[in-house]
């Protein structure tokens, strides 16, 4: 089955000052009272990806007097999965009922509002999921029903003429049309969220690799030590949240979390179909396993799989658009963990985001609300 996100034009990135370092800065404009001496905070969030900064922003919006720090090992916000992804704002069609479907559908709505409010580039370009055989039509109908059950708005089932009306180059027997699927640059979104955190009075410490965690029962605080990053030293927090993506298993185990689930990295590749020099369709396939890291994909092999859907396609129209490493959680049975996993070690003021699968970039603003709800009672006691 072919999945294509319809790109009608190139996104023009807006310069929001990505070269500006956020290191150790807290907003100077805020008038709110902070209870931090520079190293001691009410809340520390380890991980400055889109999930970490969205969570920081949500907590500060709900609790304006909170002192909060985001600790990020890289030199900028959102440098890992959050800026190496396909940039699709997913509508939530595919996912089985559960947190993933709920947070994606809610997050998709919130993301469009956020992009609009902050004047960030995006395009609500729509998506076609195409079936070319009778067997695929049965699968398509299942996906359509799932999308409707998940509350995805505006879904349509198209026949072959309907497909041509939307995308003349694509052939198929039937297709689901999802008008609310879109594209954006989640790296820019993460950086804007980081700016929001600062203007809400939060602190962002870049180049801070959280290496060790030490819980003090007497003071009910956690000391977070950085020995190997560019910045060394200790940060003390009354409540710890970890949102560390590819490292979420290792960081959680170091900070009183369970051994499972484990994270396995998967390389994921996305390509564009070029038309007159402009990306026309975003095409996607993915390969599994650490051993794939250094290998490239053959455009000729990819073309073969696409020919039933796009007979006129030529190999020189397929362009490599990028790749990223996906954090895939595996349970103790070796099975893929598909839904979100939030883990709160007993009797400790800690919450771990153990699995934040795709489409967590789309869902980030909804995930932030979920984490804020889960931590509300503990944060109220601070
Ligand atoms: C190839 C690919 C394509 C994807 N396509 C899409 C898509 O189209 N749409 C969509 O919605 N989602 C997509 N996703 C998923 C999405 O990008 C991720 O789910 C999302 O970015 C996760 O955000 P995060 O903040 O949890 O993780 P990350 O962005 O990985 O952030 C985690 C952060 O934690 C930091 N960190 C880790 N350990 C430490 C430590 N010890 N101390 C300090 N900092 C630490 C890291 O440096 C990193 O910045 C895709 C993912 C990949 C890989």
UniProtKB/TrEMBL annotation:
It catalyses: (S)-2-hydroxyglutarate + A = 2-oxoglutarate + AH2. InterPro entries: FAD-dep_OxRdtase, FAD/NAD-bd_sf. Its EC number is 1.1.99.2. PANTHER family: L-2-HYDROXYGLUTARATE DEHYDROGENASE, MITOCHONDRIAL. Coiled coil: none annotated. One of its GO terms (molecular function) is (S)-2-hydroxyglutarate dehydrogenase activity. The keyword ATP-binding does not apply. Its cofactor is FAD. This is L-2-hydroxyglutarate dehydrogenase, mitochondrial. Residues 42-268 form the FAD dependent oxidoreductase domain. Belongs to the L2HGDH family. SUPFAM superfamilies: FAD/NAD(P)-binding domain (SSF51905). It is an enzyme of class 1 (oxidoreductase). Pfam families: DAO. Keywords: FAD, Flavoprotein, Oxidoreductase.
